[in-house]
Amino acid sequence: MVYDVTALGEVLVDFTPAGKSENGNQQFECNPGGAPANVLAALAKLGKKTSFIGKVGNDQFGTFLKETLETCEVHTGGLVVSSEVSTTLAFVHLDDMGDRSFSFHRKPGSDQTLHENEVDYSLIDQARIFHFGSISMTHEPSRTATLHALEHAKKSGAWISFDPNLRLSLWDDLTHAKSAIIAGLKYSDITKLSEEELAFITGTKDLEKGSKYISETYGVKLVLITLAEEGCYYRFGQQSGKVPGFRVDTIDTTGAGDAFLGGILFALLEMKVQLEELSKEDVEHAITFANAVGAIVTTKRGAIPAMPGMDEIRKVLNEQ
What we know:
Layout lengths: L2 E6 L3 E9 L5 E8 L1 H11 L4 E8 L2 H12 L2 E9 L6 E6 L5 E6 L16 H4 L1 E7 L8 H15 L2 E5 L10 H12 L4 E5 H8 L4 H12 L3 E5 L5 E5 L2 E5 L12 H16 L8 H18 L12 H9 L2
Parallel strand pairs: 1-4, 1-8, 2-6, 4-5, 8-9, 9-10, 10-11
Antiparallel strand pairs: 2-3, 6-7, 11-12, 12-13
């Protein structure tokens, strides 16, 4: 089996706000999430073959997540089910604009306890792209497992996609966070960042200077800086630019960045060329497609359940 994308990292339950009870108390809806899993769900919805490497607890939440991935047609042969830890949970808090913040139930969560000898390296060997984030590097043993998987992916010749996905509350030490993200950047071919993450890594909010620093210092071929509804700034070697986003009625931004990245990887895979062979037009076409995917997800609650199909995406693109 050849996979278009194999991802390693967290799959977890997002408890998303869903109105108030009769007593006026906040109610939460149980939604599947976790950034690497979200990226795979976006890709699978668009017909790509994907596989997931990670860990859940042998509990009702772990069963729910495994079944969700399988329903999405994401291969779960690399998903470890453990009776020794509980499935990781995240509570999502939304402000009036639909922007979210998180609080995690992770002491430890199952995702932190993935060991290097539990990683199915054959799923990396069989993948065209290997995707990961920094959350799997917050604690041991999953940090070492991630770095071993990265070494393996580099040797296998896969493109490596990285989402720093900085969640400050998950790190015991921000110096540790920065060093882990830099370690990830050194392996990556494609990196998606928010403006806050760019400033955290480079010390500057200047999109041109920051993206150039990441490109030249760490050898990242395609740097993508998402700007919410404003679109995306990119750097591809010496070329850079900004691709506008789509205006939609946003209710929940959870999973939007993951959907965007899934859209990018899908569009690049469809081009069937090496990264170095892409033109400026190819890159901007891929970003426009990804902006549409990300925008659609913000119009629905949750992450994995909100991932759009091709008909929805074409409709948004045609309305531009």
